[in-house]
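SAMPLE LOG
Freezer: B-3
Tube label: C17
Construct: single chain, 159 aa
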Amino acid sequence: MRFEGKIALITAVASGIGRATADIMAREGATIVAVDNNAERLEKTVAEITAAGGEAMGVVADIVDPDDVQQAVSEVTAAFGPPLIVIGQTKFNIPGDFADILDHEQYVESFKSYTMSQIYLLHAVLPGMKNAGWGRFVHIGSATAKEPEGAIHHVIANA
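STRUCTURE (predicted):
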């Protein structure tokens, strides 16, 4: 599958699944807009994608902040046009089993990170996708949220 001429905005791209996805998409010809809240790792990621022959732009943003999300999408749109491929994911985890998590606000923070960030992102990119008559929004979650793994102890991330 080739993505020549497509702009792919990928969040949490400085490591893990986001980084692997960016590398694959770049090899397939997409222009990568790498979004992460860690500027140093983001800069390294963009440099490595570019050194491998891909085209990439880094945008420092915290996708839990709706203003950051809107600013990131505005920067991408100004540089390349609206992102029509968006791969949204994030990581927020406080290890522990249900009985261990006594601060209920941590569940709220998890919801903001895993759910609200994707809502902010989709609201920001949807107008461009509608105008283009085409777009793809992929949310990467956790398989253990569907089928919990007893040894992981990530009740908040799975919630």
